[in-house]
């Protein structure tokens, strides 16, 4: 692209004022969304994704039932107003299908599908705003939505994008940066530190790749903390509301009103 | 996140919140229950929720999840499909429940054998979209539950409306049928489906012969006066508000909440439209909560 | 016993008062004369029995067309009421009654998982009906070697190859048997189930069957021997 | 029709063989099936065989007016559709997940990674550019069509020659191949795709490994690996794990150790060390593929010259 914005200036700041390894602000809202069994609104900088999860429930089509485990169905929709240039993508768009397939195959080994034979789990991903890191935001939001739906997972899946500007690695790129530097997305399962997803679409020497890849793996674990705090806050708020969470050991900060809309953290 | 056996004590374990991937304890000393899995000699949580321990069994109870049926549970469901000698019923579980033709009371005597003619007129008993109350009878090999309505208390639902809440808010109690003083009947299905309806007098319900097929499988609502309609709507909205604030439900809580709303002279609509009213209602019933 | 290569549409000089036609031959009724002519419908070797009463065309194909009394290897694709649906590589799934096993009763039926393998016999093959299978001899109600196949591996080959393997004079199975012990079930639907003591030997069998398949490598005895020596050394 | 999943005995056997580092077709775990490239008769027409998997790639070119937003670049378009001819698992109509994956990967490897210098395809800025049309025909699917298709496409790009043109004033003169020899495409780099299937268990080499395969290539070793990786998976190997999408890792890389595309979309989780090891293995193996292509191109060139001199 022709943009001649300075990606990283001499002071070590990026175009939006961040440092090399600084992540954008993350906001997580886990409040109930309509009839969905679980949902998560995930905002990272200007990228915003809403994921709702239904299920496990009866499969709509008999042909989709699998006799010994649950079938996972992912539908992705990218809002026409989510980018600078207003563009309506059809549901058959290959990029959207690929995004859905990537989310499906990322979560297939993570969800304990064998507990729900012949059932179906529907994951609906609605992209509201995109400013880089779309895949990683969608994966993080899906993890959170699945957890709020009470669906058993082996672990969190925490994804983050990273790139390299000449020799400097950077984390969590914006669209502007994605257009200019080679970048990759890595999804980590924090308990074991294993990687479920790696995508790279731009040319990068394998020595550089190794460096950026390792940084992204570490960043995934940081993200895990954020996600876990949001889940724990939500869970303990609900537990408190049910009258279960009497302060024991852990300091309780019981406020007067029980508002479960957790905004920014 | 170690579950410490020595200083532990039931309370600290009970209130412990965990989330997927967190190691709870060693699998040598403890047994894994629901919401956990074992890897490398460790019991690890697979859901977010409260850790519970019964003797050596560690379970994690998710706070928001689909209904997990047990035999003997009372559920409210909706017919989704009429199939060969059976109905499929949506009961908020991981698969549709099955109601066998042989598990319902048929007209002309409770104990009679089912005939081929019954198979042909299954839709006259239940058809797609009908709501019913039933009991979980057994499970099939694939985990789907089988229901029965072989009791006068069970069967098709009329004269009211359905409210859905998270199943965890419905506690297992002696009875799930309540008649509130305001002339409203409640059926608290353990699957989180609640049926709120006009009160039916006991003798009417039972009928003369003990079983009146026409009444049981009727699709016609009785005459409902305005006051009862308002009461049904008020109870429904009270349930919605309490469920939105994750308050466990039983008859005492609901009676208290209902009376509070009447006392404060709020309209039925206020409950859903005004957040201050909703918050005030929740604090008002806090004292009447069921013991857990 | 003679054999000539025949192409579809050729008239076959099959004449016998008690003529029986096998696969690949069709009796065509010509308008005027009473005597029917026999026309071939496949490309292959024309063959007939010693007394020239039975004629057929020996050809090779990959798609199985079920014929009654043939032994096949099927994969359970699902349950259907009291029985199973079985994929035998034909145009349609076959059905296998849960009672068509040795010792099966209403109370005590075998419990086969989806995707398990059975060695079965085609009991009914009709162009307008689904083929039916049985895992026992209907008269004696004995298994006769049929039933679920546990362990081992399945090699897919051409239909001609599976017919050859059933010929006791064919070299391959005795040759392999002379090297190491093996267990084998040949399905006429181009599936051969083999089991040996070690994974390596099973792989050797699989590769040899593929190599000897007339539709693949088409190696003869000497070449297979050479291949075996190469692999095993 | 959903392709039938392998039977229980087949699955168990194949998995236990893999645990002993054996594959059904006799290859070692990190061995690619034999590659056979057939060039011609036209320039830019290549048939690639990878074992029994076959893909035909064909390139033709024409001159067009460039779109306004990119007046200085030529256009490359890729056309591929997996027809039921390749395997009965494919249907015409709605593309399957696999087909989407292959098309997207081709797009990324050939277009997004800038393999071809698009600016060199410009004849007159804003007026005339070359439009290269790459068509892929999937002839037979015996597993790992992606690697085969990418190799066919890359080979076709390398084999292709466009006519020499000259700009005289306003006119563009196109020379017949007999007048001036046609020109090969300017390529920034030559990416090759290697696909691994991953399994969540460690494999122990059999103590006395008999030689099931003829070739033996040294590979980097990784201690304490808890996964088994299989290069160039067969359809059976790709369908062994109980999930609807196989657990694959596709790497597009150049012999100069540059990664162009990495695609591991879910599947079996691997540790960072295991992942980097797989990249190293691919760097090693890509040289074999490169040698195959370069050898084939040389032979094709020699043959073409042989014919030309007659």
TrEMBL record, chain A:
Keyword annotations from UniProtKB, A to Z: Cytoplasm, Exosome
GO biological process, one term: nuclear mRNA surveillance
Source species of the chain: Schizopora paradoxa
Any one of the GO CC terms: nuclear exosome (RNase complex)
Entry protein name: Ribosomal RNA-processing protein 41
Composition skew (Acidic residues), residue ranges: 256-265
Family designation: Belongs to the RNase PH family.
Domain Exoribonuclease phosphorolytic intervals: 22-152, 155-219
Entry's localization field: Cytoplasm; Nucleus, Nucleolus
Region of interest (Disordered), ranges: 240-265
An annotated Gene Ontology molecular function: RNA binding
Known partners and oligomeric status: Component of the RNA exosome complex. Specifically part of the catalytically inactive RNA exosome core complex (Exo-9) which may associate with the catalytic subunits RRP6 and DIS3 in cytoplasmic- and nuclear-specific RNA exosome complex forms. Exo-9 is formed by a hexameric base ring of RNase PH domain-containing subunits and a cap ring consisting of CSL4, RRP4 and RRP40.
Domain of life: Eukaryota
Keyword Mitochondrion attached: no
Automatic annotation (TrEMBL), chain B:
Entry GO MF terms: RNA binding
One cellular component (GO) term of this entry: cytoplasmic exosome (RNase complex)
Residue ranges occupied by any RRP4 S1 domain in the UniProt entry: 66-137
Gene3D superfamilies: 2.40.50.100, Nucleic acid-binding proteins
Domain K Homology: 160-200
CDD domains: KH-I_Rrp4_eukar, S1_Rrp4
Positions of the Exosome complex component N-terminal domain: 18-54
Domain of life the protein comes from: Eukaryota
InterPro entries in UniProt: Exosome_cplx_N_dom, Exosome_RNA_bind1/RRP40/RRP4, KH_dom_type_1, KH_dom_type_1_sf, NA-bd_OB-fold, S1_RRP4
Comp. bias regions, Polar residues: 12-27
Cellular compartments annotated: Nucleus
Cross-referenced Pfam families: ECR1_N, KH_6, S1_RRP4
Main location: nucleus
SUPFAM superfamilies: Eukaryotic type KH-domain (KH-domain type I) (SSF54791), Nucleic acid-binding proteins (SSF50249), Ribosomal L27 protein-like (SSF110324)
Keyword Protease among record annotations: no
One BP term from GO: nuclear polyadenylation-dependent rRNA catabolic process
Region called Disordered, residue ranges: 1-27
Keywords carried by this UniProt record: Exosome, Nucleus, RNA-binding, rRNA processing
Membership in a protein family: Belongs to the RRP4 family.
The name this protein goes by in its record: Uncharacterized protein
UniProtKB/TrEMBL annotation, chain C:
Gene Ontology CC terms: cytoplasmic exosome (RNase complex); nuclear exosome (RNase complex); nucleolus
Gene Ontology MF term list: exonuclease activity; RNA binding
Location in the cell: Cytoplasm; Nucleus, Nucleolus
Transmembrane segments: none
Major localisation: cytoplasm
InterPro entries recorded: Exosome_RNA_bind1/RRP40/RRP4, KH_dom_type_1, KH_dom_type_1_sf, NA-bd_OB-fold, RRP40_KH-I, Rrp40_N_euk, Rrp40_S1
GO BP terms, alphabetized: CUT catabolic process; exonucleolytic trimming to generate mature 3'-end of 5.8S rRNA from tricistronic rRNA transcript (SSU-rRNA, 5.8S rRNA, LSU-rRNA); nuclear polyadenylation-dependent rRNA catabolic process; poly(A)-dependent snoRNA 3'-end processing; regulation of gene expression; TRAMP-dependent tRNA surveillance pathway; U4 snRNA 3'-end processing
Keywords: Cytoplasm, Exonuclease, Exosome, Hydrolase, Nuclease, Nucleus, RNA-binding, rRNA processing
Signal peptide: none
Residue intervals of the Exosome complex exonuclease Rrp40 N-terminal domain: 19-63
Keyword RNA-binding carried by entry: yes
Recorded family membership: Belongs to the RRP40 family.
Protein name: Ribosomal RNA-processing protein 40
Lineage: Eukaryota, Fungi, Dikarya, Basidiomycota, Agaricomycotina
UniProtKB/TrEMBL annotation, chain D:
Gene3D superfamilies: GHMP Kinase, N-terminal domain
InterPro entries: ExoRNase_PH_dom1, ExoRNase_PH_dom2_sf, Exosome_comp_Rrp42_subfam, PNPase/RNase_PH_dom_sf, Ribosomal_Su5_D2-typ_SF, Rrp45
Keywords: Cytoplasm, Ribonucleoprotein, Ribosomal protein, RNA-binding
GO BP terms, alphabetized: exonucleolytic trimming to generate mature 3'-end of 5.8S rRNA from tricistronic rRNA transcript (SSU-rRNA, 5.8S rRNA, LSU-rRNA); nuclear mRNA surveillance; nuclear polyadenylation-dependent rRNA catabolic process; rRNA catabolic process; TRAMP-dependent tRNA surveillance pathway; U1 snRNA 3'-end processing; U4 snRNA 3'-end processing; U5 snRNA 3'-end processing
Residue span, Exoribonuclease phosphorolytic domain: 31-163
GO cellular component: cytoplasmic exosome (RNase complex); nuclear exosome (RNase complex); ribosome
GO MF entry, a single one: mRNA 3'-UTR AU-rich region binding
Pfam families: RNase_PH
Signal peptide positions on this chain: none
Locations listed in the record: Cytoplasm; Nucleus
Record bears the keyword RNA-binding: yes
Similarity remark: Belongs to the RNase PH family.
Protein name: Ribosomal protein S5 domain 2-like protein
